[in-house]
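Endolytic peptidoglycan transglycosylase RlpA: structure, please.
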Amino acid sequence: MKRLFISCALLSLLAGCASTDVIDPHGYDQTGVASYYGAKHHGKRTASGEAFNQNSLTAAHRQLPFGTRVKVTNLKNDKSCVVRINDRGPHTRGRIIDVSREAAERLGMIGSGTARVRVQALDD
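Here you go.
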């Protein structure tokens, strides 16, 4: 009985650590650091199941639902673009979104690799 209790407690703990709670995108408006991912991931499956295309306007977010469209604005140069969430991430602490290479080019952040951005969910 003790083993069963310990096993259940361990599984509950691990499930809690592994889960990503999806949030309601309505009104989502956050500021933080963005990064981008490209060639190394091109063609690999995203968390949504589709193949990653570095030339499309997509992004990874930890909690926004797949398919959510967000406007990302680079706060340094005021460039912006709209991306669709199709993956989970970023997996680096302190970042709020990973954008595709195409989005990074439009945001003017290829040289630096990261940028301080504002991320706003769009109501469709």
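Notes: The longest strand covers residues 29-37.
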